[in-house]
Amino acid sequence: MEKYSVNELISWRIIDGQILILDSHLNESAHELNEIGSFIFSQISQGKELDSIKKDLKETYPEEAEIEEDMQHFIDKLKELQLIVPT
What we know:
Elements: E1 4-6, E2 11-15, E3 18-23, E4 29-32, H1 35-45, H2 50-60, H3 67-80, E5 84-86
Antiparallel strand pairs: 1-5, 2-3, 3-4
């Protein structure tokens, strides 16, 4: 089972329901996540496994046809930027 946690070197905040990540130590950049990205990142920060997040995502956003593929792309990008790390 795949599980990640938020990299301790970054700071993040929820602003108006969306997550803003301040990455001053790794890539010196900021990332504003959309609603679905914020949902996924929030779930990761709570220690949920990816399979559980996928299930919750499908229930929360049933109208999104390619949600699994989009989630995997998003997770891959978070890993590439080192915003999340394996646990």
